Amino acid sequence: SLVVLFGATAGAYGAKLGSDERELILLVWQVVDLHSKKVGTLHKSLVKADNLDLSDQCREVSGLTPEGLGKAEPLDRVLQQFSQLVSSDLKVLGRSSYTLCSDGQLLIRQVLHPETSKKNFLLSDCFYSFYDLRKEFHTCYPSSAAVKDQTIKTMAEYLGLGTDEAEEDFGVWQVKTMVAIIFSMLSEGCNHVFTEPETVKYKYETGPCAPCMSRAVWCFPKCSKSETVDSETVIRARGLPWQSSDQDIARFFKGLNIAKGGVALCLNSQGRRNGEALVRFVNSEQRDLALERHKHHMGSRYIEVYKATGEEFLKIAGGTSNEVAQFLSKENQVIIRMRGLPFTATQEDVLGFLGPECPVTGGKEGLLFVKYPDGRPTGDAFVLFSCEEYAQNALKKHKEILGKRYIELFRSTAAEVQQVVLNRYMSTPLIPTLPTPIIPVIPPPYTIATGSIRDCVRLRGLPYTAGIDDILEFMGDATGDIKPHGVHMVLNQQGRPSGDAFIQMKSADKAFMVAQKCHKKMMKDRYVEVFQCSGEEMNFVLMGGTLNRSGLSPPPCKLPCLSPPAYAAFQTAAVIPAEAAALYQPQALLPTTRTPQASAAAPPTVTYYPAQAAQLYMNYTAYYPSPPVSPTTVGYIAAPPGAVAAAATATHTPILPQPGALVRMQGLPYNTGMKEILSFFQGYQYAPDDYNGLIQLSDQARSVLQAPKEWVCL
Description:
Elements: E1 2-9, E2 24-33, E3 38-39, E4 43-46, H1 56-62, H2 66-70, H3 75-93, E5 99-102, H4 106-118, E6 129-132, H5 133-140, H6 152-159, H7 172-186, E7 198-199, H8 210-213, E8 234-238, H9 246-252, E9 258-267, E10 273-281, H10 284-291, E11 296-298, E12 301-307, H11 310-317, H12 322-328, E13 334-339, H13 347-354, E14 367-371, E15 377-385, H14 388-395, E16 400-402, E17 405-411, H15 414-426, E18 456-460, H16 468-475, E19 482-491, E20 497-505, H17 508-518, E21 521-523, E22 526-533, H18 535-542, E23 546-548, E24 551-553, H19 578-583, H20 586-589, E25 601-602, H21 641-649, E26 653-654, H22 674-680, H23 690-694, H24 699-705
Parallel strand pairs: 1-5, 5-6
Antiparallel strand pairs: 1-2, 2-3, 2-4, 6-7, 8-10, 8-12, 9-10, 11-12, 13-15, 13-17, 14-15, 16-17, 18-20, 18-22, 19-20, 21-22, 23-24, 25-26
Helix pairs in contact: 6-7
GO molecular function, one term: RNA binding
Main location: nucleus
Subcellular location: Nucleus
């Protein structure tokens, strides 16, 4: 038997059903006996939604009103009534089992499953298997329209069924017409057989995906790419809560079938989650439905969903080793990540910390310690548990003490295991956060203006993919009034665009006109706020301060900062403010990496100017005063290879004549600021005059160093 099912929400109708997260307000169904071609009673049930504000389209199409829905039962009770009435009708027809049949997949996958998941109650087993009438119709009548173009009305017209939609109530006509279509498919001329229903996975299957596990050794770029992931099955989810796990993401996409091990949480260069994930679905149809959940909510946060490629997915989830493959080979395990372990911690220490209430799968074999290439422990470990209960018991030990350190515990995924272990072994981030060609730079003739003249504008709410060309197009005719090198993109601590930018205009009047003309103008699919501001306010933000409705908040330090230009979308030359270049002399902060054969020498000052002065360049800055790397091993400013070669062949001048003038600190707390570092080195600080003999300083830099309470930490 089939149960023909039709439903509607308080929002969009038709092809956009469920795309706006609106709740279900109507269910209509009827039992059909395929053998005897008899039908049961047609049932129509209104559903009381939490939000009774109906869209205009819903009011027009359905004729329903908030007053009528206010008297209806909530969804959980309606579904209970559905099960009882279907069972009763089946008994009358002499049948015991049934499968749902709906007009397309949206009602089941995009409405019922997501809504019941958010409301925390379970659907009965019958909602995990159903027939898509559109697909069955196209199989029976191959010459009909494509599946995606089918509707109940077009299928009825193809068969010449003379039903009048206006004669019946909304929902009743749809179900009656669907039943008539099914009987036509069962007629002697067609003899259609319903054999392969659509299925919805009960739960997300953890573990490495097949293409990843097929490469049981390191996935270096030189390895074979024979195993691929179809790009039409992958999406990128952005804006996730940092503590969200693969199960949380699977719940967000409830109703859609995610491939085994298909959730890959993205990490930053420090191995922490950055709020993004790549999700691989079983086919392109499921991926297309996932894209319709763009800006749906996970808790109070909306999640952005975009297309991604199979190459991106493999880059995050594909790298693995034999050790990791063996660790992840156990099926249906819950993975917990432990962070902050003492470096001397052993397997016995970890098992003792977890205790008998949360036994580890396989004992010591269920533990995986993350180590650096030289074998030193990183303080991270992954643990396998056989069930959710044991994992929950382990999570209750979050921030309990082991030795003299508190231990953090989080849910994890197979992809995160692969990322973290591979990242540590390779000793470089999977997605680099710093450019490769680097040379020291001195200030160009164009510098960031200061002062209280409001000749600048601030753009807030830019799309994260926006580049210089997008901003220039957004500015329109006002582009000609921008100062040379006057576009400044503000990056976050991961080196990615923050959605803010500052633009220096030729005058305060021009800035005022731009703010008036462009405020809340659309760029791509977002509106952008434009405010007039001064050069001083702009400098505060570019140096790490904040500018909001409460006023200006000073940056973490008064020294300009050089941040790593990390975003692949921006590969232009960088421009440093004059103040920054004066303080960060290339001889002081950008020495060459020293080897036993290399002399203690550094290239002289190299200036890189763009070929065309009219071109605009970005000044990459961040919210924090220093990058997450040592300045002795990497520089900050990108430049063309020719300039690098010129710097390498130039004459050298000795720097840092005293050995040990630079120290590198590892293991700092993540909230450490300059004040704490200076306090740590109390008693070892140089007096301001002592800097003169150590580093060649300009007058401007010396004046800053000699100012009261101003320090440079080397």
